[in-house]
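Cast an eye over my tokenised protein here and flag anything odd:

===
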Amino acid sequence: MTKPDVHAFHHEPTGTFSYVVRDPGSASAAIVDPVLDYDAAAARTSTDAADEVIAFVRQHRLETAWILETHAHADHLSAAPYLQGELGGRIGIGRGITKVQATFREVLNLGEALVTDGSQFDHLFADDETFAIGGLTGRVIPTPGHTSDSVTYLIGDAAFVGDSLFMPDAGTARCDFPGGDAHVLWQSTRRLFALPDDTRLFMCHDYAPGGRELRYETTVAAQKADNVHVGGERTEEEFVKLRHERDATLGMPKLILPAIQINIRAGHRPTPEDNGVAYLKIPLDRF
């Protein structure tokens, strides 16, 4: 199996890893889960993290074929439109985004201000759809459970799993967001565990449990053997019980309200109002 070149970028404020994935036989590349900087106190965006990605792509004279979102993130804002304006490429996400849009249109009472057909994105991937990055072949593996739109991008021997898995010593992401389901996430992990043992898995987050150094890459074999939530002899019933108990103790992500409203629009802002300013909504006592 072809081994793509993978370069990771860590966004410390949100604990997010973004990636540039390159076809070793050409200049073609994809960007996975890019981050837009956001100052919550001032509701002001900036592009420092995205500019690092742009500088890397230009330094290596890469051609951006795709900007890929593993799901509509709740912990950071997407920089996809900004990167597209600078580097080109098509913005893609799994077709489950339409369910997330419909859910949050109701939760946030967005009405006609948000269409829920996914048309904000350039492409909605079907389950197991394939795509090309130069000579590389990518495949879209549905991995819902954390969210209903979560997908994994398998590109050569490298799989970008979003929040479906964390490093083995950290387990999995929560399943208590609207559309989340621990039983569904369990089944998604079985799809990932069916990949060859030496498949490289790239995380979207690492919170360095126990104070260890940051890590973002592991393998299917390591996850199957050692993942503290879904590996070893763990059963589905045990995982669901563990996940429900852990999720009940978790607060909401700090950026969920701005992040979701931006990310279900493919990183675009709401339409500016008559004063030329775009506004986000904050539902009181809803969460």
